[in-house]
Known about the structure:
Elements: H1 8-21, H2 26-33, H3 37-50
Helix pairs in contact: 2-3
Amino acid sequence: MPWRGLTVSEQRQRFLEDYQLDYYSVTELAERFGISRTTAYKRINRFKKHGQAGFHEHSRRPHGCPAASGRIMG
Length: 74
């Protein structure tokens, strides 16, 4: 297991370093790091779009609340 003793960011960095070496297929990398191919492609695309900033977790908080009631005027 290549990720023992590593932080999540370090694991992601190692994954992308291995991807850039072009030695393993995405399927092999996903199996090696214990993630799905969907997650692997998501990380690769996030890295291509955001660079190093793509290693960090993104907030899953909604940007708005469409079901919220309007402001009460009184």
